[in-house]
Design brief:
- The protein has helices spanning 3-21, 52-64, 87-99, 171-179, 197-211, 321-333, 350-355, 357-374, 445-453, 470-484, 541-545, 578-585, and strands at residues 35-40, 69-71, 102-111, 114-122, 128-133, 152-155, 158-164, 184-188, 214-218, 245-247, 253-256, 265-269, 309-314, 338-345, 377-383, 389-394, 400-405, 425-428, 433-436, 458-462, 487-491, 503-505, 511-514, 524-529, 535-538, 573-577.
- By secondary structure, it is α/β, with parallel strands linked by helices.
- β4 and β5 form a beta hairpin.
- The termini are far apart.
Length: 599
């Protein structure tokens, strides 16, 4: 077949598909798809700039750009709490009607004796479609009550969920909003005490990826640019980030204001949004029951003298058992405490399970012998010897400590051996708690969340997964390190994608070691200090009482010290382990399915 005829056949087949499956006819060149324009607004944070006038000017800019939805930051007008509807919210809603666009605003709301931090969604007609009251807060946040719902709102562009400020610290919110039908989540926020762009951006991209969400971020910029300086140099790391952004479900940036702030606009094909509000959430029973349980699981008890600095290794795919044993021997000689192996496939069908069973058990015996010889834990996973995909954990004596059956099982369901896991793979070792997941388990972020709730120190991921593309893989894996507070040992195999690697990462989402491309890799071995973890930070009480604008931080600092860069300024104080603090601030009752109306 000539290339011309082949192209013609493909075009005709595509047209037939559109008409039969999508209900759309195809006649000649396709019309441009309808686009939805999302404007994420970054206002200036500094004192005197958070005015209604400035918020309305930004909405005019979004309207002039043809926005279908414009999103304002948290407490976009600095004022005393007022009812919603009230003067400021009505002025914002009037701009929605003027430009015939949807608008998300956020203000301090007063209702009776209570104050809330409230995001409100205005329709194109200027009427308020609905409100969301900030539902989570950190210990340093004072002066407002919390809302008790995670609603999703129907609009003409699709189902929209809202969150505000430190809500972002709780990944359950994004997951529940997705389960309630949202295709877009709008995060209206203000500066945190520690403004770490790496942590915030990577977690946003990761949430977009593993929830299949579009995410729009409206936040503040500082009037003097980078960290209070007119150039890109800063010691402080505490200035507002700017960066109003829109991410797609692949974690890619569709719009970005840059650090100086502004009104970036993302154009999204309408077909990629949509959705209808529903009442989804996490069930109170089953393998992920811990997500909605009223009490946290008990952490691993700390024994006196417990080892918390370990050597951990990840060994990339090696199909030769003799070479694999040699690499395990090298790990042992290097003093490793824990080794994560690849996801192996030692048979291809039921007949081979039986044919190779003794051989495969012999392979496992050799691996167990290395664990015993070097007094180290070893985890191996895959289609090993029982006819389904599982992980086996050997202890320092070479004994089988436990097995984890893959939850997202990839064994053929027609196999007489088929079984899928019904619980998350958590194991307590003499230095800490680990969790094991395998390959396709990455498509269930609930596994990672249950590991976090149990305060697991390490996630082990023996895997053959390689896609859909490698930046997707990294955004997914590394953002979960941050969200769930664990170290990651990822034992993979090389592919033709040059950045598809085996790696070890920390709870800040940084890769500490990675395999080299297209070579026979030695084991990756890293010393991990398991108690070196992200901290929870607060502004000192004196700074908080001085007002909401601690940057540049001049309060309480003698004038002669102000020019001493970072050392001469107030800065946030560490107040404990971040994950432990956040887990205590969760509200699991909100993560369950919503009751039907009237129930």
């Amino acid at each position: 077949m000539s290339s011309f005829r082949f192209a013609l056949v493909v075009a005709l087949a595509s047209a037939a598909f559109c008409e039969e499956i999508l209900g759309e006819s195809f006649e000649g060149p396709a019309a441009a798809p309808k686009k939805v324009k999302i404007a994420a607004i970054s206002l200036v944070w500094d004192e005197g700039h958070r005015t209604l006038e400035n918020a309305l000017k930004a909405l005019d800019e979004a309207g002039a750009a043809g926005a279908d939805l414009a999103c304002l930051p948290e407490e976009c007008v600095y004022q005393a709490a007022e009812p919603i509807p009230g003067p400021a919210s009505e002025a914002i809603a009037k701009k929605a009607a003027e430009h015939k666009m949807l608008v998300v605003g956020n203000l301090r709301e007063r209702e009776g004796e209570k104050t809330f931090v409230t995001s409100f969604l205005c329709g194109r007609d200027g009427k308020i479609i609905g409100k969301y009251r900030k539902s989570h807060k950190l210990p340093y946040e004072e002066g407002f009550a919390l809302g008790d719902d995670l609603p999703v709102f129907a609009t003409d562009i699709g189902a929209v969920g809202l969150k505000a400020g430190t809500d972002h610290c709780f990944p359950e919110i994004d997951a529940v909003l997705r389960r309630r039908g949202a295709s877009l989540v709008v995060w209206s926020t203000s500066p945190f005490p520690i403004r770490d762009e790496h942590l915030e951006t990577l977690t946003l991209q990761g949430r977009a990826v593993h929830n299949g969400l579009h995410i729009a971020i409206a936040r503040y910029a500082g009037k003097e640019g980078y960290g209070g300086y007119k150039n890109a140099f800063s010691w402080t790391g505490t200035w507002p980030l700017g960066r109003a952004q829109v991410f797609d479900p692949d974690g890619h940036t569709l719009a970005d204001s840059g650090h100086a702030g502004g009104v970036p606009v993302a154009a999204i094909p309408a077909s990629r949004l949509g959705g209808t509000p529903r009442n989804g959430g996490y069930e109170a029973a089953g393998k992920y029951a811990a997500i909605t349980a009223p009490e946290l699981p008990l952490p691993l008890p700390r024994k006196e003298g417990m080892k918390r600095t370990i050597k951990a290794a990840a060994i990339e795919c090696d199909g030769d058992i003799a070479r694999l044993v040699t690499k395990l021997d090298a790990c042992g000689k290097a003093g490793c405490d824990l080794v994560c192996l690849w996801e192996y496939v030692w048979y291809n069908n039921d007949a081979e399970v039986e044919k190779f069973r003794e051989r495969n058990r012999g392979y496992l015996a050799r691996i167990a012998d290395m664990a015993k010889r070097h007094r180290m834990y070893v985890v191996i996973a895959g289609e090993l010897e029982r006819g389904f995909n599982e992980a086996i954990l050997y202890d320092r004596e070479g004994r089988e400590l436990g097995r984890y059956t893959k939850i997202n099982q990839t064994t053929d369901k027609k196999s007489k051996y088929y079984q899928a896991g019904d619980k998350v793979g958590l194991f307590d070792l003499d230095f800490g708690r680990i969790c094991v997941k395998i390959c396709a388990d990455v498509y269930s972020p609930e596994i990672d969340r249950v590991a976090a709730l149990h305060q697991a120190d390490l996630m082990l991921l023996p895997t053959q997964d390689a896609g859909p593309f490698t930046d997707h893989t990294r955004m997914r894996d590394l953002s979960r390190c941050i969200d769930n507070g664990y170290f990651l040992l990822r034992a993979a195999c090389g592919t033709r994608q040059t950045d598809h690697r085996t790696y070890i990462a920390d709870p800040w989402g940084f890769v500490l070691a990675a395999s080299q491309y297209a070579t026979g890799n030695e084991p990756l071995i890293v010393t991990l200090q398991l108690d070196n973890r992200p901290k929870y930070y607060e502004w000192p009480e004196a700074v908080r009482k001085a007002g909401p604008y601690p940057d540049p931080v001049v309060r309480g600092i003698p004038r002669e010290r102000f020019d001493q860069m970072y050392s001469g300024r107030n800065h946030p104080e560490a107040k404990g382990d971040l994950r432990a603090v956040l887990l205590k601030c969760r509200r699991p009752e909100l993560y369950r399915p919503r009751a039907e109306p009237g129930k």
